[in-house]
Amino acid sequence: MTSRIGVIADTHGFLHPRVADVFANVDHIVHAGDIGGEHVLRALKQLAPVTAVLGNNDGAEGLDIVRKTIGGVRMLITHILPRPRKLRADVAASLRKSPAEIVVFGHSHLPHNEVIDGVRFFNPASAGPRRFDYPTSVGIIEGARVVHVALDERSVDALQRRMNQLSRG
Predict the structure, then answer these.
(1) DSSP designation for 158
(2) CB 3.0 to 4.6 Å from 9: which of 2, 32, 139, 168, for a disulfide?
(3) Angstrom distance (rounded) from CA 5 to CA 133
(4) pLDDT digit string (tens) for 106-154?
(5) Which of 137, 134, 88 is nearest to 110 (CA)?
(6) Is this structure's pTM higher than 0.85?
(7) C-alpha angle 152-163-122 in degrees, rounded to nearest 5
(8) How far apart are CA 83 and CA 3, in angstroms?
């Protein structure tokens, strides 16, 4: 049976009320940093086991790399990438040493879901306080299916408008 993984980032101390519903049937949750407090992780752990990295707003540099295989999916999790086509040197080196199927990242608050050289780069966007006209969303990974889930009506259009902006220009 395929694992269902919830992906979240940039909560900044606020856990959107819809997250519990969206993640109700996940087997594991990945948080890509800027958590904003242990209370967020405690709430997520009520739903499923959690793997998290610290972000630059968590009293860390946001440069940690965690490697984890969840439900057979090899992941690299970090907060600051910064861009899928312009990786930090240590992220690129880690991927050369041990390939991953998906790289989960946060920091930009921009949604991203793109396969580059056989690796999927996924940023769920922010599930925390609204910023600019960016979407408020999370992600679900279920086998080869990797999708964003808008947490409010306004974010449906914002997801489309802002998707993969980190690879443009």
Answers:
(1) H
(2) 32
(3) 26
(4) 999 999 999 999 999 999 999 998 889 999 999 999 988 999 999 999 9
(5) 134
(6) yes
(7) 95
(8) 27
CA–CA separation, 59 and 3 (whole Å) = 32
The partner residues of 52 in beta bridges, in order of sequence, read 31
- Answer whether 76's CB lies under 8 Å from 104's CB: yes
Determine which helix (DSSP H) or strand (DSSP E) holds 73, and give its type and residue range: strand 73-78
d(CA 89, CA 106): 17
Name the amino acid, one letter, at 93. A
Residue 104: which of 126, 89, 122, 119 has the closest Cα?
Answer: 122
CA angle 6, 12, 18 (to 5 degrees): 45
The length of the chain, given as a count of residues: 169
- CA–CA separation, 165 vs 97, rounded Å? 28
Only one residue has tokens 């790289």, namely 103
